[in-house]
Amino acid sequence: MMLQRPQSKDLTPEIPARRMSALSKRNFLFLQGLMGPFFQRIGAALRRDGYGVYKVNFNGGDCCFWHLPNGINFRGTLQEWPEALRGIIARYEITDVLLFGDCRPMHAEALSVCRELHIPVHVFEEGYIRPDWVTLELGGVNGHSSLPRNPQYYRNYAATLPVAPVHQTVLSSFKRRALEGIAYNATDILTRWYFSNWSNHRPWHPIVEGVCWLKRLSRRKAARRRTDRLCTLLEATKVPYMLFPLQLDADAQVRLHSSFSGIKEAIELVIASFARFAPAEMRLVIKEHPLDNGVQDWRTIMRQCATRHGVARRVDYMEAGDIALVVRGAKGVVTINSTTGTLALACDVPVITLGHAVYDIADITYQGSLDKFWRNPGKPDRATFEAFRRVLIDHCLIPGGFFSEEGLDRLCCTIRSIGVTRPL
């Protein structure tokens, strides 16, 4: 196990006396973030406000998006990591740990260490409600969230809160996310000789993933044409359809917070149930995740599965398009635990979840079996969902986004504003 000593601290800017006591005792340690500059932007903002800021880099991709002082290169093994983290926390008097996603192996170990040392862990994720929100919860997110599943809790809690402020949309660029992912993976590959013990939590080699991203970008026009034809067909025929939005195959939401080993298994189960129990006039639209890397050919996998079950003429694959428009036209949404579920619920579209989801709550989502959902999906209780949404905004949602300057600016501004008065 090897640790690189952080660089010298820069001069701390003057802080008003009324805030000095609150800030002087806070030292933040960043672990892995989303591929991109988000953690660097947050770190820079916290440094300007007088916090101590440190960052552990596990590979070259992490270094690529961290150009602030106090970077710590961890080159050890997963087995050596817990003891190394204890040493970092003690040496730099860390009071708070920040990370993106709580299921990566290094992060799972970090959460265990921090519980032992009573160090709060602030976990970022993409928003429970999208677009334009980011999740920030203490101790865990998604299947590890501390949010209860009792509908009455949300109705009671929301009744004590003021009306939510007007929320503004933010820009988000698919191209920017793809290019940042390519930059991260390329730097990771080029520095594997230095970070020799690093093992990516993702199941594909970075070269494979990078090549597939480039291929997917090059095929966007053809995918858009196929999507436009499908949307025209659905609009012209007014045929009823259910929507099944795919999630990312490597997502911990699928592999750790559901019974599925991957998306292929979920496709098989959904199509088999649709073939046996859905009304004959109904169609099933399977929507590709907008950030899928293209390693798996889901379009072909879907077609083969639908053919085996005798419903190839009734199952459609959508590669692009505005998910909000597709949701609004659906009779219901079948999901593992995608945040498309909350988008559907906001539109009064019935939702069934096949995995563990923070919004899988009685009176909000369908609580029966998938086989029965096709014919009688019911309706979500609007008041309960609105109460749930209001509590989320108060408890763990931050306005902004990762993939535009406007979105990052809004995130940084909000996080700075809550830095003294909330746990972060």
pLDDT under 50 segments (min length 5)?
Answer: 1-23, 420-424
Number of strands: 12
Main β sheet profile: 7 strands, mixed
Tell me the span between the first and last alpha carbons. Answer: 30 Å
The total of helices stands at 17
Report strand order across the widest sheet.
3-2-1-4-5-6-12
Q: Write down the CATH topology of the largest domain.
A: Rossmann fold
Q: Structural class of the secondary structure composition?
A: alpha/beta
Helix percentage: 40-55%
CATH architecture assignment of the largest domain: 3-Layer(aba) Sandwich
C-alpha-based Rg, rounded: 23 Å
Mean pLDDT: 87
Give me the strand/helix succession.
HEHEHEHEHEEHHHHEHHEHEHEHEHHEH
Number of domains: 2
Shape, per Cα inertia axes:
globular
Strand content: 5-15%
CATH class of the largest domain: Alpha Beta
